[in-house]
Structures are given as structure tokens and as C-alpha cells.
Amino acid sequence: MTPRLEEVWVYLSATPLLGLTLTLLAYHAAFRIYQRAGFHPIANPVLLAVTMLASVLLLTGTPYQTYFDGAQFVHFLLGPATVALAIPLYAQWPRLKAMAAPLAIALVAGSLTAALSAWGIGALLGASRESLMSLAPKSVTTPIAMAVAERLGGLPSLTAVLVISTGILGAIGARYLYRWLHISDPAVRGFAIGLASHGIGTARAFQTGEQAGAFAALAMGLNGLVTALSLPWIMPWVERLLGR
Amino acid sequence: MIAALTLLLVFQLIGEVIARALALPIPGPVIGMALLFLTLLVRGGPGEDLRQTAGTLLQHLSLLFVPAGTGIVLYGDRLANEWLPLLVALVASTALAIIVTAVVLQALTRRRASSKGAQQ
Question: Which among A47, A76, A105 is the end of a domain?
């Protein structure tokens, strides 16, 4: 690099402007592709944007922390966006209330399946204990999953990556599972994807309709609650029982 | 829009304070969501401003997961060693969680609908 270019790079790599702008540019491009693909689930915008950004970081040798100094402004909005989920929830309240008992039973069944099957399959295939404990809370929203993983002795930042991968997988695969199972009720579809794939599943559900979105938001919030309260008790017990 | 954004942040802040003060395992924003929901139930639905701002934020919810997802670059080594168990566990358990939840909920709501139909 010529000295002038090097100076520009020194400036850019020290300012949050670059990380923030790159995040928005990558998402914008990813969303355009998603749109062009007729909102096909495989063209998931999170997957596309993360792939682009990870490639840029690896190719330029930029540390993740430097990137995150800028991207944190976008990351921060997860908080108010989570609070904002109260609004679609309120809009669907009459239907939610009418389905309270079935929702509660499906919630407990789904929540236990998500955590125990991830742990069990990972354990059978020989994943390390740290990875298993990072894997168990993978179906719930990032901040809860990170807190739970830390309590269980996992790695919170690895959990964040596993949580987002789970979200992308659910957003991509749910449509095919529903087709196979002949499930067409948007309330059921939304609830299951929100439970298994938290915010990214909820984002996908909102793109298919408001009712599915609201049920997804409800499932995400409730599964976060159930997982945060139950896993710190259940996982040590499961480990002792199965001798790992 | 600014008023609505302020309201969302105020609820998040109250949620964070409660979570920390009571040492709850639930994150502040989730408590904030529950409190805002209860407020809407008690005081009536959201105004136009709040509805629009929430709509804008939620429409691009996917964007907000991109920075954390890019953190995958930190785990090159672990993923190289453990990618198979992690990938299989993620794919299979995500599918299982969706199937179990959807089938249970579908069965329960259908049974209800048919027993209601029988009563009428």
C-alpha cells in the first residue's frame, strides 16, 4: 500500500463508521437477493449478510472486535426491538387467550425437545462438554442463551453463533417440515418456528403474515422464559444421570 | 417516532433495572416486553406512532442479528474440529423442536375445535 492509502486505512479501521456501514451495506445487498429470490427461505438474509461480512473480515485480516465496535450500534437495537414485540402480541391477544392451554403444553414439549435433543445428539457424536453446554440453550434468543450457557459452563460467544445458526436453519427448513406434516394454521406455524428459532424464525414468520409473526414472538418470549428457568436445573441432572 | 422509540427504551431500561435488582435469569428486554404488553392490556391498544415504529423495527429484525452472527469468525478452530457433531445436532434438534411443537399444538387445537363442534 502507498503511504496515503495506508493512512486512509488506519483512519477507517479505527472508526466505528466502517463496521456500521459495512453491516448495513451487506444487509441491504442480502435483502435485495432475498427479494429477487421471491423471499425463498434458502436465500436467508442473515445467512447471506454474515457470509459476506465474515469473508471481508477474514480477507482483510480485520479483528472481529474492531468490526463490532461499529456494528454494536445495530446490535444494540435488539433490545428495543424485543420490547416492541409487545405490540403484535397485543394485537393477537384474543386468539392467544383462547389457545392458552394447548400453547402451554406445546411450549413445554418443544422447549425440552430443543434443549435435550441438541445435547443428546452432540454428546453421541463426541462434542466436547464446553460445546454441549453452549449448544443446549441454542433455540432461545441470544441474550438469554448466552446467560444460560455461562451458568452451565459453556462459552457464551460460541452460543451466540450456535443460536444464530439455529435461527437460520429453522427459517430455512420450517416451510418444508410444515408442508410434509400438512400444517397450514398460521398460528401453529408461527408458534413452532418462534419456539425453535427465536428472533430469526420470528422475522421469517412476520414476512409470511402478522398472525404467524405474533405467535412466533409469543413462543420466542415464552421459550426464553422456560429455558432460562429450567435448564440450569435440568442439565446438571441429565449429565449425572447419563454419566457424562 | 422519537416518542415511540423513547417509550421502548424506557421499558427496556425498567426491565434491565428489575432484572439486575432482583438477580433474575431473564434478560431486561424480555421483562420490558412483558411490562409493555401488560400496559397495553390495561390502558388500551398502542397509538399510531408506536404501532408504526414497532412495525419498522420488526420488519428488519433480521438485520439486528448480523453483528452477532459475524462472530463466527472467532471460532474457526473449534468449528474445524467439531463441525460435524455441532452441525448434525443443530439441524436435527431444530427440526425435532419444530416438529414436536407443531404436531402437539395442532393435535390439541384440533381436538378442541372438534369437541366444541360436537357441543354445538
Answer: A76
